[in-house]
Amino acid sequence: MRLTIDKRGASKKASSRYPFVVEVPDAATVGDLKRAIAAQVKALSPERQRLTVGADKAALADGDSLGKYDLADGATVLVKDLGPQIGWQTVFYIEYAGPIALHYLIYNFQSLVYGQTFEHSALQQRVYLLIMGHFIKRELETAFVHRFSHGTMPLFNVFKNSAHYHLLAGLNLAYWLYSPATAQGTALAAQLGSPLLLSVFTGIFLFAQLSNLSTHITLRNLRPPGSRERRIPRGYGFGLVSVPNYLFEIMAWAAVTAMTRSLAAVLFLAVSTVQMYLWAIKKHAQYRREFPDYPKARKALIPFVL
User: Fold this and answer.
1) 69 near 97, Cβ under 8 Å?
2) Per-domain residue ranges for the chain?
3) CATH topology classification for 2-83
4) Which of 108, 196, 229, 301 is surrounded by the fewest CB atoms within 10 Å?
5) pTM summary value
6) pLDDT one-digit tens code per residue, 43-89
7) Chain segment 103-145, per-residue pLDDT in tens
8) Coil/strand/helix, residue 16
């Protein structure tokens, strides 16, 4: 089957190679077509390509056969160059490394950050351990648990994605949570450092973290290695909501916020919750479209409510 490849979006004035023709087997997949295009345009690796047909802006999925899109001999496929790419796993490593580094530096180098040295309170010590543990857990999950449905993303997006973690979860939280205002000996540290309250909020945080890990393992087991297969998730947490991993994430940061009563933590919790709400609604709608037998009673993010 011969297909015409033309350029979509950007101006063609510097693209004299377009349009051009590639030849693929009749039973070829979208992935096969991308590799055929890359063979003719060396700079356009399969990861950089976004293929569409006609006026439809929905991208052709790599694993689908070309026949699914009614592509016949002589049809035209439009390609858009997504630019330099970076692996999603690498993106996750970068995102979570920022808060780890910032919390470590701000907690341990007080004189450079605050211009003085002081003894950390029990509250600050506990929060430091919990937050560092959270992001180290994230790094380990990235290495050993997650299976990514998309191999790469545009390189530029790594800066946008990292800003949330580096600025809000890293610099914002660390600077205010470890400041002299709640150091050992202050009235605020005494008020917030009740051993009972620290134990209660630590228990909630750890419960949420272990539950979050459980849901990530469930999602991993849905997709065989090397596959992008999608199935309805079931099991712990999924009987109530479509994205219990987000629910447990919100619960963990709500515990940190209640423990510290910090406006910095409130800001991070609010921004994170809004973002996860938007992702949850999108994922819930996607599940419902994709699976006709998707459980009707299951909510998106908040059990029995939303």
Assistant:
1) no
2) 2-83, 84-183, 194-306
3) Ubiquitin-like (UB roll) (3.10.20)
4) 196
5) 0.84
6) 888 888 899 988 777 888 887 888 888 888 888 999 998 888 888 89
7) 999 999 999 999 999 999 999 999 999 999 999 999 999 999 9
8) coil
